[in-house]
Amino acid sequence: MRVRAVRHPGDLDDLRRLFEQCRVADGHGPIGEHQYLDLEGGTREGSIGRVFEVGEDLAGYVHVGPRRDTWGWVVETAIHPGYRQPDRIAHVLREAIEVVARAGGGEIRAWAYTAAIATTLRSLGFRPERELLQMRLPLPPTQRAVIPAGLRLAQFRVGRDEERWIEVNNRAFAGHPENGAWTIGILAERFRQDWFDPGGLLMAWWGIDLAGFCWTKLHPGDLGEIYVIAVDPRFQGRSLGRWLTLEGLWYLHRRRHATTAMLYVDAANVRAVRMYERMGFALDHTDRSYVRMV
Fold first, then answer.
1. pLDDT tens readout for residues 161-191
2. For the segment 111-124, what is each residue's pLDDT rounded down to a tens digit?
3. Has residue 259 been placed in a domain?
4. Please, what is the end-to-end C-alpha distance for the chain in angstroms?
5. Structural domain tally of the chain?
6. Residues with Cβ within 8 Å of residue 226, at least 6 apart in sequence
7. Which of 36, 42, 102, 135 could serve as a FRET partner for 269 with CA atoms 20 to 30 Å apart?
8. The whole model's pTM is what?
């Protein structure tokens, strides 16, 4: 396999095709949203992309980017279904390790979206870290959304609610590796995406205080996502998370005509997992991360 730096924007169309081939083969995409948007924007902010070729074929891609939660790196890979032999997977991952070593080292968090990648990561000295569950639910939901007394539900007001949203999100997800430490710039980047729908970002207000929110997203194929959901720690313990989830599900069904809903939840968050199970969500698949120092 030949390896070279990603060319931006020249490689983007080929990489999009590679990601779609992986999605069809595996049932879900190979690259997380943060990494995908980073690639689309030109692998900025210290991120590094590498392309792997066999003959004229684009056989794989690895994305190495700085972690947002702590000092270190995140690695995600997309390997063509026809080139997933163990030696080729190991070649891609070793290149990622070398990239990190040349950048000064640090702890690598590598995501494994297939069993073959997980096996190779363990053989290279990575240890299991996290399990992220994707859960799904047929729509419409079987339960109604009854607004708690004293609360008001409204859609996000672009140009007015950004700072309040950031404050609540970052309090609710303090220390979280993906959802914590959002900035106005990150939020604005999401607003520029074609899928963004301000009506689907539901804000729960207690007077002038933002108690929580449920941000929804529509994927192709009538699949709706509870994209980000949070309750301000000052308002926790009032079952607002369950109510906001239901509001998001009904919005996806009634306004966006979604037929299935999905969400991600950390397996270690047992309380949230059980709440979603009681609402009818079932496990679709598990994404696993592995870590190693370099």
1. 999 999 999 999 987 877 888 999 989 999 9
2. 998 899 999 999 99
3. yes
4. 23
5. 2
6. 214, 215, 216, 245, 248, 249, 261, 262, 263
7. 36
8. 0.90
